[in-house]
Amino acid sequence: MPRGAGVQDGGDGWMVDLSVEIGELTLQNPITPASGSFSWEYDEFIDLNELGGLVAKTICREPRDGNPTPRMAETEAGIIQSIGLPGKGIDYFLENIVPEYAKFDPPLIVSCSSEDPDEFALLASELSVPDVDVVECNISCPTRNTSGGNFALSDEHTGEVVSKLRAATDKPLWAKLSPNAGDIVSIARAAEEAGADALCIANTFLGLKIRTDNFRPAIGNKYGGMVSPALKPIVLRMVYQCAKEVKIPIIGIGGVTKAEDVVEYMLAGASAVGIGYAAFRNPTALTSIIRDLEVWCDNRGIKRVSELIGAIKDEDMEMDTLTAASQGV
Ligand SMILES: Cc1cc2nc3c(=O)[nH]c(=O)nc-3n(C[C@H](O)[C@H](O)[C@H](O)COP(=O)(O)O)c2cc1C
Predict the structure, then answer these.
(1) Quick count: other Cβ atoms within 10 Å of Cβ 212?
(2) CA-CA distance, 232 to 79, in Å (whole number)?
């Protein structure tokens, strides 16, 4: 059994249960890759069987070339990217990619997307094959419109598309929300009411970088999704706010680079995390964070990592920010 499963460590007394439950699904630990910055090919560098789950790149029904290049640019604090969901379509995915992931033990979470709710639902039903454990709907592609692919900017569009997906699949359905929504809590509620089993919070922040040598946008699609460890406090705040308002589990995604970040997300109410940027830079981040989390828990006598979920101590701090700001000094 891998260390990532949280087991006795050869007699030195470690015994941390790292497992978490996302609805009916049990993950051996709360560490999953984030969609788009991970592939089964990472198996060359890490033991994929140590991970809590395997998350495939968002798949679309028809083959897509993706966005014009360049697709990625560096900033002072992270990257801005607009890849454009390139892929070879559903048939290729089912025939060639699902079998690659199926060679490993952790559950397979398949992310999918469409600009059309009916095609999206069809895609979800076609993806509901035995080797797929979870359908994650990417309803938050940052460079798309709210009525077509970036549904998670609006509670109405979110409710509509998640309802269609819910009707189309019996698999656990996770909805990936957008940090660009004005009021993410209302979107979270809409996704829950429409039947999502879990929420992934969140996708990337819409951004722009302009080259000062030629005055052109730095990436071919003009706008891109910003990812950076600097964004973690913002997504953490969103996870915290949503966790107070929905009952379904939350996977916190944004700026996780170390075990303490996982702890923060869990204290805020997340049941697991997704890791994109850190694993994109160095795939071994995924497995080293699992080990560090185990050590972190063991050092504090925490026997089950799930004890951390929602364990933030804030009972005496219920005043909201706006109320606090309007108090006299
Ligand atoms: C290169 C790249 C490609 C991405 N592709 C997808 C994708 O296909 N589907 C998706 O839902 N999110 C995609 N994302 C967003 C990540 O899944 C994740 O939500 C985001 O990077 C925030 O997590 P992080 O701060 O750990 O990177 C992508 C991110 C990056 C950096």
Answers:
(1) 7
(2) 14
Q: Assign residue 211 the CATH number of its domain.
A: 3.20.20.70
- Cα 150 to Cα 37: distance, rounded to the nearest angstrom: 19
Structure tokens at 129: 């094959």
Residue pair 185/242 in contact (Cβ under 8 Å)? The answer is yes
% of the chain at pLDDT higher than 90: 88
Domain count, the chain: 1
Per residue in 278-294, pLDDT (tens digit) is 998 999 999 999 999 99
Substitution candidate for ligand 1 out of 227, 231, 238, 258 with most atoms within 8 A of CB: 227
Residue 325: which residues within 8 A CB-CB, separation 6 or more? none
Provide the mean pLDDT of the chain: 93
SS3 173: strand
How far is the centre of ligand 1, averaged over its atoms, from the C-alpha of 83 (Å)? 10
Question: Could you give the CA distance from residue 5 to residue 19 in angstroms, rounded to a whole number?
Answer: 7
- Which entry of 141, 200, 242, 297 is annotated as an active-site residue? 141
Give the other-Cβ count within 10 Å of 269's Cβ: 24
Q: Residue 272 belongs to what domain range?
A: 3-325
Name the band, by pLDDT with cuts 50, 70 and 90, for residue 326. low
Rg of the chain's alpha carbons, rounded to an integer? 19
Residue-wise DSSP of 244-290: HH--S-EEEES---SHHHHHHHHHHT-SEEEE-HHHHH-THHHHHHH
Q: What is d(CA 285, CA 160) in angstroms, rounded to the nearest whole number?
A: 37
CB of 176 closer than 6 A to ligand 1?
yes
Cis-peptide, bond into residue 202, ω within 30° of zero? yes
How far is the C-alpha of 77 from the C-alpha of 202, rounded, in Å? 18
